[in-house]
Amino acid sequence: MWRRYSSWLEVRVLVWISMGFVILESVVGAIAVLLPSVSPAILAVTLGVSLISFAGNILVTIVLAQIQRQHPFGSGDPHRLRANELPKNFTKWTLFTLGYTFIAMYVGAYLAKSNISDSFRGYPFPSETYHQAGFKVYFDILHRGIAIGLFLLIIRLFISAYRWRSERPDLYRGALLAILLVAGQILSGAYLILTNLSLLGFLIHVSVVSCLFATLAYLFLQSLPEPLRPNPSSISRIPSKSPSRI
User: Are 226 and 85 in contact (CB under 8 A)?
Assistant: First the structure.
């Protein structure tokens, strides 16, 4: 696969991201196992690293599918993967939302690893007071407040993508999926609390945020300007009737 697709910049970058963060995740996981006590702040990094690796694998799969289709948007350039460049503000806003999502995930993972979330009930904000839970209540409120901020950010992103729905239906569909996923994330958070932090609720919550992060990463990739491509003759295309070569 590498020889066939390495001429594409997106493939090279995404493959290295996927491999690099898988290795990093293994190292962090080994440290967590070997050391007698590890800070929750370090343990929370494991989820963040796995999230980036997951997104990298999803994106490289999408890019390979785009390459096989050659010109999914009907562009005159057979090696153009993205049509109609967008204003830089959209790309910056998408990157900001992606980074914000990573921070939200990290805060949630930190609370889970430090067992702070075990002390709180009530939705959308904890019913416990400072006198009952101490300073921990502020961490829990921070996490839930970040979730509300993320919902507002993605609504803003969806509005921007909606304006380009005719020229860039890929961005519109991706932003619509992000809206559904962030709503699912909020609902899964409520389910997690109402079921007293059940394993099923935790798995749903983590799975939804992983899909949300990958969706935002896809939007960021699709909003980037098209890089310079090598000579078309040097770019291989998989024959449609040769599945054994894939």
Answer: yes
